[in-house]
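Hi V.,

You were right to ask for the full record rather than a summary. Here it is.
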Amino acid sequence: MRKTIQGLLALPLLIPAGMCTAAGFDCGKASTLAEKAICASPKVSALDGKLGDAFGAALKRHPDKAAALRLDQQHWLADRDAAIADFLRDSPGKPLPGTVGQYRERIDFLRGLDTKTPKPLDIVQGALSRLPAGSYDVLADLAKAGAPITLATDVPMEEAKAFPYEPDATMRKALGELDASSGYRKLPGSPVSSLYSVGGTAHCWTETPFRIDGTKAIAVAVPAAWDGDCMTRHGMAKVGTDVIATVLVNPSADEMNLEAAPWNGGRFGAGTRLVLRFDHALAPLGSACAPKQSPCDDFATVAMAAAVRYDRNPMSGTLDRPLKGDAKRTYDALVAAGRGPKGIAPKGDTTSYPDLPVFGATFADGEMTGYGPEGSFFPVEFRGETLLGFIGHGHVGWRINGDWMVSAWRLKDGKLEPVASAYVKVNRGTLLLSAAVASPPPAPH
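Predicted structure:
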C-alpha cells in the first residue's frame, strides 16, 4: 500500500469552512515538498480540491469499490508526487502548472465511474472480469478468454506491389511513402482496413484507412486517435458486430488506455477511451556485489525494502533517516563526493547519472540500466558499513521504465567505489477499476 500523501484517503474529503485554500487538504499542515508546492500554486490547489470532491463522490456512490478506490488513489498520488518532483527539479522557483500530475485526467476518470460506457466498449468492459492479472493487451487477452472479440491480423509488406487491392489516388500516394515497417490489416468480414507504417525512435504510426469495395481500396478519413500518434500500439478489431480502430497504450504498470473509434458505414466515428487501472507489486530481479559476480542476496533484501518505501513516495528525502557520529560523518563525505566534479551528480547536476553497476553479472541483461535525472541519494547500512545509496528508474536516452534500480558506493582513496546493486521489477497485477472517458485531442509530435 502506498503512503497517503494527503488526508484524502483517511479523512473526510470536504474542505472545512474557513480554510484559506481550495486544496483537498489543510495547507496549514502541509509537510511534504509536494503538498507545499500544491499550496503555492492557486491553479493546482484548486484542482486538488476538485479531485478531493470527485474522490469523495466516488467513494459515496461506489461503496463496493472502496478498497480498490483507496488503493488506486494511493498509486495515483505517488505518480503525481513524482511528476511534481520532476517539475521542481527542472523548474526551480516556479509555481506548478495546472497540467502537472494529470489532475484533470484523474478527475475525469473518477467521474467516469458513473458514466455509461458507449458501444462497443461496453462489451469490453463487461468482460473485464475475465482479464488475467498482468495483462498488457486487453483485447487480445479477452479474445483468448472467450469474449466476442476478433482482432485484425497485421500483414507485413516489404514493397507496394504486395498490396492486394487496387488503390485509389490517396492510397497510391500512401503506398509510395511506406516506411521500413509497413503493412495492412486483415479482418475477416470487415468492410474497412488500413495501410500502416511505423518508424522513428518514438515508434510513430502513419495510417491510411480505406474502404474495401470489391477489389478496390478507397481511402477514408483517418480517425482522430490515429493522427500523429507515437509510442502506442495501433490495430483494428471486431467487437460483437462492430468494427473499431484501436489505439492501446500502457503508460505505467498502473494504467492501460484503450481508445476505440467505431466504423459507421462510411467513416470512423468519435473515439472513446476506456481507462483501466491496476494494482502492482515489486519483485527483485537480481543483485550483485563487488568483486565480480559475488553473491549478494543480503543486498537484494536491503534494496527491496528501499524500493518499496520509495515506490510509495518517490521524492528526494523519502529514504533519509537521522545519522549520528561516525555514520553521519561518513555519509556526509559520501554525498559530497557524489556531488563532486567526478561524482555521480557533479555540482548537483542530475542529468548524467551512471549505469547500474552489475560487476559482470547478467541479472539486468535486456533491461534499461542507465540511471536518469530523477534518482535520489539515501544512506545505506550494509554489512556493518555506512554507504551512499542511490535509487531511480532505468533509462535509455529519453526512454524511461517503471522499474527501480538500487546501488551503493563507499569512499575509497577519495573516490566512490561501487559496492552492490540490485534491480527491482514493478509488475502489473490485478485490475482495480475501469471507466470510459472522452478521448483527448491528438497530441502533436
